[in-house]
Amino acid sequence: MKADQQEVKSRKLKITPVKRKLSEKEINDIAMNTLKSNKKGSFGALNEECRLWQELGNNPPQWWKNILEDKELYVEIRKDNYANVYYYGGNVAKVQWTGGEITAETHQKYLGDKKPVRIAITKKDKEIKIYEYRDCREKLQTKEGLEKMKRCIHGIYHDLHGENEHAETRVTRDRSKHVYTSSEKSVQGALKLRFPARFIDSEFAYRIGKNSLIRFDLVELKGNELIFIEIKLITDSRLNSNEIINQMTKYSCFIREHAEVLKDYYTKLLRIKKRIGLWNGETEIKHVALKPVLLVVNTYKGELSKGREERKEAIGKLKNKEMFETIIIDYPDLCK
Fold first, then answer.
1. What pLDDT, in 10s, does the model give residues 63-74?
2. Measured between alpha carbons, how far is 320 from 324 in angstroms, rounded to an integer?
3. How far apart are alpha carbons 294 and 151 in whole angstroms?
4. CA angle 215, 218, 224 (to 5 degrees)
5. Are 87 and 214 in the same domain?
6. pLDDT value at 53 more than 90
7. How confident is the model at residue 197, as a pLDDT?
8. Fewest C-beta atoms under 10 Å: which of 87, 166, 195, 205?
9. What is the rounded average pLDDT for all residues in the chain?
10. Residue 32 domain-assigned?
11. Contact at 8 Å (CB) between 155 and 169?
12. How many domains does the chain have?
């Protein structure tokens, strides 16, 4: 066979992709599409016609009624169509539509079982205790059962009386430091319960990418304006660094970029809350405050020392006029 008649074998072309850094606009476009999509974890996933909301509105079980009647509990709607029931920041139950019925589950510790179901060993030979979530409808069915769950949560989650290595309780330690015994979660819960018509959500969380988490402690509806709030106690060491400024600036950027999506999401959330008996106010939101609020709770007791006075003054100046504002409130005045 002549050379020019020989079969020419095809060769695969090796294509090397050109790597480049995405522009800020491209990153924002990706984030916006994710926010608007109906995928799990996105704001668009919240469905007003989800079977859970229909059943809770039209045919609620007795245990759900017990939750609504309890003055120390509050319920939050989540974007993946379930509800979380809280007791001062402690998650009493996750309520969802599963297997053709309304279900509720909680951490096994809150049912009085502190024994882990198994213990895993990490590569560094560290022990990790593995717990599970269990059906808690039977406990919620009676007010006595619900009270037992609340006591378990109080003892584990808030741990106000837990002793340290010196056999000192937290209350004793705080008294010696001349500060009120509290926590961010306790403040969050107190504000939610005292002003249910103002604070329409808590524990807001949204993940953008693998390493970026947006989290707000409270969401306030003031008039028709939506305001996002981050809570810190005045004793928090993070208030001494640029960490809090960077955090609040990051939050402000998120709000500015996604204000319309957030407004639509919370309008839908309020309609759902109204449908299932959690809200009786207006559901229209006209504005979103572009500057989040850093709410610093002053837990110092009595007359302030020079050092504490200077710290309070310095924290009051922790602000970026363009990005966020700082409000300091004394602990006794918190729920006035």
1. 999 999 999 999
2. 5
3. 31
4. 115
5. no
6. yes
7. 94
8. 166
9. 87
10. no
11. no
12. 2
Residue 287 has a CB neighbour count (10 Å cut-off) of 13
Same domain for 140 and 182? no
Range of the domain at 101: 46-158
* Residue at 262: amino acid letter: L
| CB-based burial, 169-186: b 16+ in 10 Å, e otherwise | ebeeebeeeebbbbbbbb
Beta strands in the chain (DSSP E): 74-78, 82-87, 90-98, 101-107, 118-121, 127-130, 133-135, 199-208, 212-222, 225-233, 287-288, 293-298, 325-330
For residue 131, the tally of other CB atoms under 10 A from its CB is 14
The number of helices, as runs of H, and strands, as runs of E, in the chain is 10, 13
Measured in residues, the chain has a length of: 336
Q: Is residue 235 part of a domain?
A: yes
Q: Which of 203, 287, 183, 293 is nearest to 248 (CA)?
A: 293
Same domain, 243 and 102: no
203 burial (CB, 10 Å; 0-12 / 13-18 / 19+) is: middle
Q: For residue 73, which amino acid is it? A: L
First to last CA, the chain: 99
Question: Closest Cα partner for 278 from 61, 116, 53, 128?
Answer: 53
pLDDT per residue as tens digits for the range 190-200: 999 999 999 99
Q: List, in order, residues 6 or more apart from 266 with CB less than 8 Å away.
A: 200, 201, 219, 221, 226, 285
Place of tokens 């639509």: 264
